[in-house]
Write a structure and sequence with these properties.
The complex is a heterodimer.
Chain A: E1 16-27, E2 34-45, E3 49-53, H1 60-67, E4 75-80, E5 83-84, H2 90-100, E6 101-104, H3 116-127, H4 133-143, H5 158-171, E7 176-180, H6 188-203, E8 209-212, H7 216-219, E9 224-229, E10 232-238, H8 242-252
Parallel strand pairs in A: 3-8, 3-9, 6-7, 7-8
Antiparallel strand pairs in A: 1-2, 1-4, 4-5, 9-10
Helix pairs in contact in A: 3-5, 4-5, 5-6
Chain B: H1 2-11, H2 13-51, E1 57-61, E2 74-75, H3 78-84, E3 88-94, E4 96-98, E5 100-103, E6 106-107, E7 117-120, E8 129-134, E9 142-146, H4 147-153, E10 160-165, E11 168-180, E12 193-195, H5 197-203, E13 209-210, E14 212-217, H6 223-233, E15 239-243, H7 244-292, H8 294-302, H9 307-346, H10 360-386, H11 404-407, H12 409-429, H13 434-475, H14 477-488, H15 490-528, E16 533-537, H16 547-553, E17 558-571, E18 574-581, H17 586-589, E19 594-596, H18 599-603, E20 609-613, H19 614-620, E21 627-632, E22 637-646, E23 655-658, H20 659-662, E24 675-680, H21 686-696, E25 703-707, H22 708-751, H23 753-761, H24 766-802, H25 814-841, H26 844-849
Parallel strand pairs in B: 7-12, 9-11, 18-23, 20-22
Antiparallel strand pairs in B: 1-14, 1-15, 2-13, 3-14, 4-7, 5-6, 5-10, 8-11, 9-12, 10-11, 16-24, 16-25, 17-18, 17-21, 17-24, 19-22, 20-23, 21-22
Classes of the chains: A alpha/beta, B alpha+beta.
Bound molecules: adenosine-5'-diphosphate and magnesium ion (MG).
Magnesium ion binds next to helix 1 of chain A.
Chain lengths: ~250, ~850
């Protein structure tokens, strides 16, 4: 399963993995029109954890869905690893996701009937390729699950399940991993284990992570923090501490 | 991906098993039917081949056309020419007729209307029967009996018994007990009697006649060579020369056409119904599970699964379920065949059968149907699964998108219904051959079922609206909840109900159809017969000895005795009955329903005029004054002019002529007497007259005396037997649809786990929960039952109207319909048992936390 994904030569900084230009997303029409995104331009460089924050309804999920090619913007463009998403058909998008994008969701990350190990291998199986055994061993080690790898998700804790999901996203060495509230259902202890793994993915394995989160302590591990309100980026900061993040949130509300 | 499919199946064991059962039972019926009929087929071949194993060449009469009910005979003198042919060592005439032995007053005949045979005894070198005690009969008045008769009657060699013949009861002596071939097979229960040729010829009016001439070859002469030699010695064009094997195969195939094929197609039709019901359930199960797995599919899509791979997962699952179910179904089919065989034996319709045969054709057909239908039924749900957008994985409570196709459903359903109705109308009124008419009729009915199933979801809401009132009254809050659950997903309820609808619909249809058949007979007896008593011959195609008429006439209390006889005859290549009546008395015993003609016209029928039944006249485009040429099975023909037309699809269904005109057209052995219609002198006691008739006909054991009421009872009881068989076969389809209800309930309970936890946490008792599920099932089964009854009535009415000219009348089966509706409610309650238990067992806390 290989594909030709045409790279557009661009003037964009070569180390940017995801580049969004003037994104607008409008839901509904007329009176009930909602501008979920209103002229968002942002680019994410390689090898960083970026956190997207903002009040409920500010457009975080919409932004992430569009960046990941799960949804189409009303206008604007998205480049993922040099590929323009606009105009890709379903088949091309599928292959792009396979090769370049990893996901960690809030709920329902794992198939209940497969073991943790099988869940990790699933995307590679679907693509019909074989994982690099050394890399896989490294990831298994990184999850810290040890012998529990042969257990079904129902027999794992929430934190363990999310770490499996992160490992799964990493196995194919994607260009970028998107996370939608990856720690949203976890308590602070298990949450920090998952965040540590994401951090390690970037620091040791050179991955790129973009995650939407509500949680200031989650955003505090990021190299860069974006704040959205009413579909606009209202602050684009580097690494912030949890305290600074909470302060920013207060000013936004 | 395959691993994923397998894993999915094993985690959803109960659901997979229930889905498999839906198709398994249909496959069981198909393979069972094929196994059984192969077995019957093989048994026939084996029996006839064994019968001819000592015979190299057979010579027989070539009838002008085929009529399975009539035996034809050839000139026994031809044996001289056969003996003179090169390479013939031995040649003998052989006759086979219907008759039976009576031991100590007990007739040793077949039960269930199958014929009992008397064979002329040929020499041991040609005879398939060999004595196991005593010897073969040679002199007049001697017989040998099959060992089965000896076992049953305890008759001994040397015992004096009587033989029921065409010519009355004859005293005979048993000189031997014989077995067929090596004794392992028998000819249909075997009531066979062997008697010398001369006795058979004399007692069955077959002087100078033979059924066959058997020839044996000299050493070193092959069957084919002998056949060629005998053929050369017989220049007659109206005789057939065959090798023993060819003749055996032909006889086997004739019998197989008569019995095996009918059983095969009838059973396959019911198996088809079972498969159709199974297809609905599979479709429904897959639709539900695809909807429930929306997020799973979406998640797979986000991590790179293509649409094709999603399609593959669902269809792959169907493929595996279909394959496993088909393989088990083939195994169960063997058991089914074995059981049916035993059943046929138990109801006195013993079929000859050899061991179970599982041919590769059976395996291929069963697998193709089982796997094919399962995969086909899963394709629409699978296509919908491919429409799930990856983003659905990120939304809680994501639901399956509405398919483009779904919006077209009503229009499509109406097109399908119109096509179906057109098919049914064509099937009923076209002039095509019966097979294609039946096929279009069945195809039309299937389309209508499908269309109604598609439209049913629009009636779910209003129907449940009506039902919820009494249900809420009876069951209170849980009743209300049940009603709401039923309309939550109308399509799901509708398809579940539709599966039951098919079974119930066909049960109602069969009830009406068979009721119509019964009515056509009893109505004909009531309307057409002026006679009080009828004398007929037992067994099929049987004719009465000529002496019966005089014996009846001599009975005190008999006012008129009117003889009727007939033969098979062809006009324009189609076979009808040519009926001879007594012109002076027929109108005293029979009321013609005239279209064109009058009772007076009957008296003036000449030797070349005939009355024609209306439907036949229409088919042949004959009207009064037209002439037609008719050829009887004897090969003789005559031309008649139509003198009138009347309607009677039941009793005198054919061409009516003077018996004097019929006589010269009959085979030489035929008496030309099949029935005597008798009226009693006014004021006489019917019981006394009937008893006197019985007494007077003692010497004619094949004669059967029945009052009109007894005839009707006989029809009713055979009709009831047919109904019971139909019901039993349809019960299987109804059972499959129950699995469908179970399946839907189990799946929706699974889906509502959290909700059930919530209901329990706010104080719903386990008993209330069970009641809620039970009412959901009952609502579904009522919808299915009502739709089924309505469609069944519609089909029944249409078919009865369409076949009106063939005597079928529509009778509304009120009582039965009430029973069927009650039964469908019971079915719902039964189907709810397992799902209700499962729901009630759920742990409240776990259910609440369930994802
Ligand atoms: N499918 C949709 N249809 C209509 N409006 C939507 C849809 N999805 C999101 N919105 C609206 O767009 C805005 C942004 O939503 P979202 O991106 O989900 O915000 P967040 O994730 O920051 O809470 C909200 O006002 C929301 O109501
Ligand atoms: Mg959101």
């Amino acid at each position: 399963m290989s594909t030709e994904i045409t790279s557009t030569p661009s003037a964009v900084a070569t180390d940017a993995v995801v580049v969004a230009t003037d994104l607008t997303k409008i839901y509904g029409e007329g009176d009930s029109e909602v501008r979920a995104l209103d002229g968002v331009s942002v680019s994410f460089p390689k090898g960083q954890v970026a956190a997207v924050m903002g009040p409920a309804g500010s457009g975080k999920s919409t932004l992430m869905h569009i960046l990941a090619g799960l949804d189409q913007p009303t206008s604007g463009s998205v480049l993922v690893d040099g590929t323009e998403l606009a105009g890709l058909n379903d088949q091309k998008l599928t292959l792009l996701r396979r090769d370049k994008i990893g996901f960690v969701f809030q709920f329902f990350n794992l198939l209940p009937m497969l073991t943790a190990k099988e869940n990790i291998e699933l995307p590679m199986k679907i693509a019909g390729s074989t994982p690099d055994p050394e890399w896989q061993a490294t990831l298994v080690e990184a999850t810290g699950l040890g012998t529990r790898m042969t257990h079904k998700p129902a027999e794992l804790s929430g934190g363990q399940q999310q770490r499996v999901a992160v490992a799964r996203a990493l196995l194919s060495k994607p260009a970028v991993i998107f996370g939608d509230e990856p720690t949203g259902t976890l308590d602070s202890k298990t949450s920090s284990e998952v965040l540590a793994l994401l951090r390690r993915a970037v620091d040791e394995f050179g991955q790129t992570v973009i995650m939407v989160t509500h949680d200031a302590s989650a955003a505090a591990i990021a190299d860069r923090t974006l704040f959205l309100r009413d579909g606009k980026i209202v602050r684009d900061a580097g690494h912030l501490s949890a305290g600074e993040i909470l302060d920013t949130i207060k000013t936004l509300e | 991906m395959i691993a994923l499919v397998l894993r999915g199946l094993s985690t959803r064991k109960l659901r997979s098993a229930l889905t498999a059962i839906a198709i398994l039972l249909g496959v069981t019926m198909i393979s069972g039917t094929l196994v059984l009929t192969d077995q019957i087929d093989r048994a026939f071949v084996q029996i006839f081949q064994q019968g001819n194993s000592k015979i190299n060449v057979v010579v027989k009469q070539k009838p002008p056309f085929k009529d399975p009910q009539t035996e034809v005979f050839l000139n026994a003198d031809l044996v001289t020419a056969v003996r003179a042919a090169d390479g013939v060592r031995l040649a003998e005439p052989f006759i086979q007729v219907q008759g039976y032995v009576i031991v100590d007053g007990e007739p040793m005949d077949q039960t269930g209307g199958a014929p009992s045979f008397v064979f002329s005894s040929v020499s041991e070198e040609l005879n398939p029967y060999s004595p196991i005690e005593g010897r073969l009969p040679t002199a007049s008045g001697e017989i040998a009996i099959a060992k089965e008769i000896a076992t049953k009657s305890k008759a001994k060699v040397g015992q004096a018994v009587t033989l029921a013949t065409q010519d009355g009861i004859k005293p005979v002596k048993i000189v031997g007990i014989v077995q067929y071939g090596d004794g392992t097979t028998s000819l249909g229960g075997s009531t066979t009697v062997l008697a010398p040729l001369i006795d058979v010829q004399n007692w069955w009016s077959l002087q100078g006649k033979a059924s066959y001439i058997y020839a044996k070859a000299k050493d070193g002469v092959s069957d084919e060579q002998l056949k060629a030699n005998v053929r050369a010695a017989l220049p007659q064009t109206d005789v057939i020369v065959q090798t023993g094997k060819e003749d055996a195969d032909e006889q086997a195939s004739v019998l197989n056409d008569l019995i095996g094929k009918i059983i095969r197609y009838a059973l396959l039709a019911f198996a088809g119904v079972a498969v159709l019901v199974g297809a609905f359930i599979i479709y429904n199960t897959f639709s539900i599970t695809v909807a429930q797995r929306t997020r799973e599919f979406a998640m797979l899509r986000t991590i790179g699964a293509s649409r094709r791979q999603i399609l593959g997962t669902v269809v792959g699952e169907a493929f595996i379920i279909g394959s496993v179910a088909s393989i088990i179904g083939i195994g169960l089919g063997m058991v089914f065949a074995w059981g049916l065989n035993k059943l046929f034996g138990a109801i006195g319709f013993g079929l000859p059968a050899t061991g179970l045969i599982l041919s590769w054709q059976t395996v291929v057909v069963a697998l193709a149907v089982g796997v094919g239908i399962t995969v086909l039924a899963s394709i629409f749900p699978a296509l919908r699964a491919t429409k799930i957008a990856p983003i659905a994985a990120l939304r809680e409570g994501a639901t399956l998108p509405v398919g483009r196709f779904q919006k077209l459903t009503p229009a499509l359903a109406i097109v399908i219904a119109v096509l179906g109705a057109a098919g049914m109308v064509f099937g009923l009124i076209s002039e095509a051959d019966t097979t294609s008419r039946l096929l279009t009729l069945a195809g039309g009915a299937i389309l209508i079922f499908v269309a109604v199933a598609m439209l049913a979801r629009f009636i779910v809401r209003p129907v449940v609206g009506v039902l919820s009132v009494p249900i809420t009254k009876v069951a209170g809050g849980v009743g209300k909840l049940a009603s709401e659950n039923a309309v939550r997903n109308p399509a799901r309820t509708a398809v579940t109900a539709a599966a039951l609808m098919i079974g119930i619909g066909l049960v109602v249809f069969v009830t009406i159809f068979v009721g119509g058949l019964r009515e056509s007979f009893t109505g004909a007896i009531d309307n057409s017969l002026k006679s009080d008593v009828t004398v007929t011959a037992r067994g099929f195609g049987g004719s009465l000895p000529a002496g019966v008429l005089d014996a009846v006439k001599a009975v005190p209390g008999v006012e008129t005795a009117s003889p009727v006889g007939g033969t098979a005859a062809q006009v324009d290549g189609q076979t009808f009955a040519l009926i001879g009546v007594d012109l002076t008395t027929i109108t005293d015993v029979y009321a013609f329903d005239w279209n064109d003609g009058s009772d007076e016209a009957v008296q003036s029928l000449g030797s070349d005029t005939a009355l024609v039944e209306e439907a036949i006249a229409t088919t042949l485009k004959l009207a009064t004054g037209d002439s037609f040429k008719i050829q009887t099975i004897s090969g003789k023909s005559a031309t008649f002019t139509v003198a009138g037309t009347y309607t009677d699809p039941t009793i005198l269904n054919g061409f009516v002529v003077d018996q004097a005109a019929l006589k010269p057209l009959l085979q030489s052995n035929a008496t030309g007497l099949n029935t005597v219609f008798v009226t009693e002198t006014p004021g006489s006691n019917p019981d006394t007259v009937q008893a006197a008739l019985d007494e007077a006909l003692k010497g004619y054991p094949t004669a059967q005396v029945q009052s009109n009421a007894q005839q009707k009872d006989q029809v009713a009881s055979s009709v009831n037997t047919i109904l019971v068989i139909f019901y039993a076969l349809l019960a299987l389809s109804v059972m499959i649809s129950l699995f469908g209800i179970v399946n839907t309930l189990v799946l929706s309970i699974f889906e509502r786990t959290r909700e059930i936890g919530m209901l329990r946490s706010v104080g719903t008792t386990r008993r209330q929960l069970r009641a809620m599920i039970r009412w959901e099932a009952v609502i579904t089964s009522i919808i299915g039952g009502v739709l089924g009854v309505l469609l069944g009535i519609m089909f029944g009415w249409a078919v009865c109207k369409g076949l009106e000219s063939e005597g079928l009348s529509f009778v509304f089966p009120t009582v039965q319909i009430v029973i069927f509706l009650v039964l469908s409610i019971v079915a719902g309650i039964v189907a709810a048992i397992l799902p209700a238990r499962r729901a009630a067992k759920l742990d409240v806390l776990e259910a609440l936390q369930y994802e």
